[in-house]
């Protein structure tokens, strides 16, 4: 499907069709004056004629489709409850036009912003010593050693040089003295105002400083006596302003995600559907298509890297209900505070890959994160970019999947802890947590492992099985179903070593927020696919072919019996109907990192007892993984 996948874009859109008809917080019937227009033939000249004839302000060709154009209104963005059909219908009847789609407005919300009341690295930036997440010596009552281990990467000479990170947000202050020399104007654009200058719109409350703060955390210049330093202080930063308008549209999201994919290496998204604990939402059709194009074609075919904040809904929400954070194509990152606890607004889900740091519970104002705005402030971060911005001058051929594997192998438990979710090991010995993923990102560990990295094998996809019969769910008992699979063994798309697993579920309930869903792999790893969401009272929509995703079975053998458990956890009696459960396996046929180990045991397999040697093979895989993780340390 992606990268070296055998499926094309059409298959991607079919697989994720659940995300095309989504319930969200955008008001029903809110339409915009922005149009998606497809021509039968022709190009810019025909488009210009159409904009003049039908009184549009301008039009822009979209890079992710054939003869697709974004038609802009003349005046400022407006919303309307009823479609003004006259101009739309006239344009649609024009012989030059194949299709016209009015863009619906929907809600997107910024994430990670929360106001709060012995290493030889020398920096003259005045706030550097307060940046505990870079080097934690116990400042601000934190836990010494609980940091991103960037000092080790910096000492080896890896500081982000040659990498461009795009901040998809409310704009960035590219004139700020701590950002100006690292600003990449060529890769920047303002999709809110349709111009190449993504400067933030001023507000008295600093609301539109979110993107600038993100940019500062990543690319703030070092050794300039201003504020602090970025985690990748020699990287280039691009601004993509796309959040500062009354509504979001599919065109704006897709255009942002697909902007300059051969220049931009990493796209940072610290936003998503409303984190209110009752929204189930995700990318629409154009955005899915743009993201698929990005991982297939971006970075000269190595794939664009999309990094997503997992969500700010706290214990009331579940980030598996966010189709951006739970996508296989994104690196979804959660956060912790400086003593290793979770921030109170953190969401948990089985799709989270790893964690970084934020502000949170502590009253000490220096327990926050330093960044660059017109004045230097502490705030809640998007401190999840450092790991992927350090690699162009280590291994220029790293793919988007390589980055996910490196994240899994080198992220560490360190001193992270949570009162609710305990640390566990999956079937091949990888330690994970439902809240923190595979642990806190480690720059030094990733750099060391990446230097000798070999690109992971080709990825394949297998439908493990599907339950299509209706099954009733009652408060008094738990519904348990099983799917037994050979993971397409003997076929071209056989999956032996897992990466992502999706449980595509269609279910309706008298109260959606009281549903809980768990899935257990053949190797005994239980993933919490859906937690209790007490604010979600939906009784109509439910989940329609929704792809719940887990990363917790990474590296496991998917052959055997998968168990789905579904029930209600609320106090009031509820009922529901499960209409579909399909297990989608995504992974490789040959073992990543450990091909020789597998070959050795396969040769023995022909001469000895199969079951005993398969156990021995799994143990060897686990030993190899541990060896790799020690190397990362």
UniProtKB/TrEMBL annotation:
Record-linked PROSITE patterns: P_HOMO_B, SUBTILASE, SUBTILASE_ASP, SUBTILASE_HIS
Keyword annotations from UniProtKB, A to Z: Cleavage on pair of basic residues, Coiled coil, Disulfide bond, Glycoprotein, Hydrolase, Protease, Secreted, Serine protease, Signal, Zymogen
Record-linked CDD domains: Peptidases_S8_Protein_convertases_Kexins_Furin-like
Record-level Gene Ontology MF annotations: serine-type endopeptidase activity
EC number: 3.4.21.94
Compartments, as annotated in UniProt: Secreted
Protease recorded as keyword: yes
Enzyme class of the recorded protein, top EC level: hydrolase
Domain P/Homo B: 455-591
Ranges in coiled-coil conformation: 603-630
Catalytic activity line of the entry: Release of protein hormones and neuropeptides from their precursors, generally by hydrolysis of -Lys-Arg-|- bonds
Protein task: Serine endopeptidase which is involved in the processing of hormone and other protein precursors at sites comprised of pairs of basic amino acid residues. Responsible for the release of glucagon from proglucagon in pancreatic A cells.
Name of this chain's protein: Neuroendocrine convertase 2
Annotated source species: Electrophorus electricus
Taxonomic path: Eukaryota, Metazoa, Chordata, Craniata, Vertebrata
Gene transcribed to yield this protein: PCSK2
